[in-house]
Amino acid sequence: MIRILFISFLILSIACSEEPKKIEEITPIKTDTISQINNQPQNFSVQLFLFDSLKPKLGFGYNILIDGQTFIHQPSVPSVPGNIPFATADKATAVANLMIYKLKNNIMPPSISQKELDSLKILMP
To answer: Residue 58: helix, strand or coil by DSSP?
Structure first.
């Protein structure tokens, strides 16, 4: 059921945005603990991209890959109305890493709240 929700969200996100420009790929996050989702070891990585569909405002989005396959496509800041991209690559990476933490620790749904964005100082200029 959760995968269906993620797939629906992914399709909706892709349909509402222009094709992102890939700017860099961060090496996979290595930890001593191997996450178990559906009893399968997973290798997580974050891929950042430049998001420019809200011209002239440029920003960043992220993809979370599991074993090299895109699992989450996030072109805008979650829990914020509208399609507002992340202001910096560091802010996008911080939220992506929080999402990976939630996935690895089976915190479901792995959504990001407004309170978490505030604690990470994502919405501050």
So the answer is: coil
